[in-house]
Design goal:
elongated, mainly alpha
Length: about 140
């Protein structure tokens, strides 16, 4: 029994030593996260311009979107992060999204989606024709 107790005690001591070396000192100070992670996150470059920035220049599209079913979908949800475009409008031209895959991301039929959410089987619905042939992306009524 003494040997088992010594092996168990050595295991506990080894665990505590390794834990002390691996876990950051500030972990758990304000809950179950590392406060210094906020500084690391802030150091990353900003990628998104923000809804207000898009609307400031693209007023016509914003009005059309606000009048339709996509009113609460942020511009960059479809167009991707645009901070680089805002920083250098003359030289950074964003590519238009591929509507065939973009629309399917949200609207492809899936049993897990709410019943009232517009869903289609894209292969049957459009016959291979791009969505924006019949629908306006910012206000998708036909």
């Amino acid at each position: 029994m003494v040997r088992v107790a010594l092996v168990l005690a050595a295991g506990v001591v080894l665990f505590l030593v390794v834990r002390n070396m691996v876990v950051p000192k500030d972990f758990g100070r304000y809950g179950h996260f590392r406060p210094e992670a906020l500084a690391v996150i802030r150091a990353h470059p900003v990628a998104f311009a923000g809804q207000g920035t898009c609307v400031a220049c693209h007023d016509d599209q914003a009005k059309e979107r606000a009048a339709g079913k996509h009113a609460h979908v942020a511009c960059e949800a479809c167009h991707g992060p645009q901070a680089a475009h805002v920083a250098d409008i003359a030289n950074v031209k964003p590519a238009l999204p591929d509507v065939a895959t973009l629309c399917a991301r949200c609207h492809e039929q899936n049993a897990a989606k709410p019943k009232g959410f517009p869903q289609v089987v894209t292969a049957e619905h459009s016959g291979g024709v791009a969505c924006n042939t019949c629908h306006k992306p910012h206000n998708p009524q036909i």
